[in-house]
Design goal:
This protein is α+β, with helices and mostly antiparallel strands. The protein is built from 3 helices and 8 strands, in the order H-E-H-E-H-E-E-E-E-E-E.
């Protein structure tokens, strides 16, 4: 699946807005997507470092219009924790040389609120 197919929409509620200061963002995702797929999609789309992904299936509600009773569809929600203090990582390469990871990560998702 493409990253655009995995991440459907952000979930904007009071609770999700409060958690954004801690680096936790909530998304509606494809029901077939795994935690690894979601982490890779968020990293590719928003250029952030994902630390943790929690997923849950939200059951649809029963709705009634006049005499007809129906049910809204179930959907999958993912809470993605990102690294809010990205720093350069170093490791030992061949011959004991110290090498740095040159990839730059953002510390927030600016596109989340439509900015």
């Amino acid at each position: 699946m493409k990253p655009e197919e995995i991440i459907i929409a952000p979930v904007i509620t009071e609770k999700s807005n409060d958690e954004m200061q801690n680096g936790k963002y909530t998304f509606e995702v494809n029901r077939k997507a795994t935690k690894v797929d979601i982490a890779r999609a968020v990293e590719k789309l928003f250029e952030v470092k994902v630390l943790n992904v929690n997923t849950m299936t939200v059951k649809g509600k029963t709705k009634r219009v006049r005499y007809v009773e129906g049910k809204t569809s179930d959907w999958k929600k993912a809470i993605v924790t990102i690294d809010i203090n990205p720093s350069e990582k170093t490791y030992l390469g061949k011959g004991g040389k110290v090498e740095k990871v040159s990839k730059k990560y953002k510390d927030a998702i600016d596109e989340f609120m439509g900015a």
